[in-house]
Amino acid sequence: MALIDVFLSRLVKRGTLTLTDHQGQSRSFGTSDPDYGDVAIRFTDAGAAGYVASHPRLGAAEAFMDGRLVVEKGDILDLITLVRRNQPWERGGQLKIRNPLRRGFNDLAGRLSRLNWQSRSKRNVAHHYDLGNDFYRLFLDADMQYSCAYFSDPANGLDQAQTDKKAHIAAKLALKPGQRVLDIGCGWGGMALYLHRTCGVDVLGVTLSEEQLKIARERAAAAGVADHVKFELIDYRNVEGQFDRIVSVGMFEHVGPPHFREFFRKCRNLLAEDGAMLIHTIGRFGGPGTTDAFTRKYIFPGGYIPALSETLAASEKSRLIAADVETLRLHYAMTIRHWYRRTVENRDAIVAMYDERFYRMWLFYLAGAISTFEYGGMGNYQILYTRRRDALPITRNWIAAEEKRLAALD
Q1: The domain boundary residue, chosen from 85, 108, 124
Q2: Mapping DSSP to helix (H, G, I), strand (E, B) and coil, where does residue 95 land?
Q3: How are beta strands 243-249 and 271-284 bridged, if at all?
Q4: pLDDT for position 156
Q5: Of 240, 284, 264, which Cα lies nearest the Cα of 385?
């Protein structure tokens, strides 16, 4: 039996995967199950099957990007979902001791990529976020929120869900007019502008992306609020001053475990004594892990998805109180499904901007992310911190009341 046959027979038990090799010979794996789907793929050259089977963490992605693996029934999302759904993170059965050699090798492979000293951080950010503003406009919402939305109603569209995300975060921060807010990793400025418009606060947004900075400043100027909403190209470690509130959405994933304690120590020093800080981050459901090879190489060099345990452990060292923790279990999968659909709809434009290989890489990235949030061990955490235990109301009632007020504004 060929290595690829052994590989696929282990991966696909429910649903069917039909494989056609470069000579036109076909075989199927799994058992028919309409809930899992029916996918067909084809390898276009003699070496593709062996490459995928012998490089399980990177082979399928690169074979798809290079046109050596072609999905003939369904699409790449269907293929990845079929495989991932057969091995969901919360699957039953007895837990076994993991292979310590494999665990050690995987940890070593990702350890160096997590070192994000300042010069490397800017380079890593540019690799992903400076792809071009016109590219991101093709698949993001109108406010260009490149992070998990909040679906207060699963039927809501992407723009509404992203507005609700901003309201959900603003409500938790219990903002008051005139307060000073720091937005770490401000993106294209949407969150900072929203907080000023709805809560009357002054905001400093910091980013390492020159492309994002340009748009954020243009938006603040166009809205006539540049005196109250300012943006700087600066590493958070170099920010000075005191802030009543700190918000960071989708940035903590780029900090890296070696710098977690440094991040929280800096934030505590920037935060007023009666201040509050909210971090919105992708997180692992289990314990600490490693960044997969595809993501390290092509998508987020230096990126690392933290476990809740290691995030809280790092913040405890800075005497920050986790006043509220919320797990968004499916919201990011729903968000990225919108991005995936819009990416497919704008295929021709993306290929014209870059090339076919880039388009397939991006599609693989989004498809993999969807399946990870639907069946893998990833979700999103919103962690609200305070320096003082009496800095916020003692029940969560204020959050719903403030969300209702913000919803009425929109």
Answers
A1: 85
A2: coil
A3: parallel
A4: 98
A5: 264
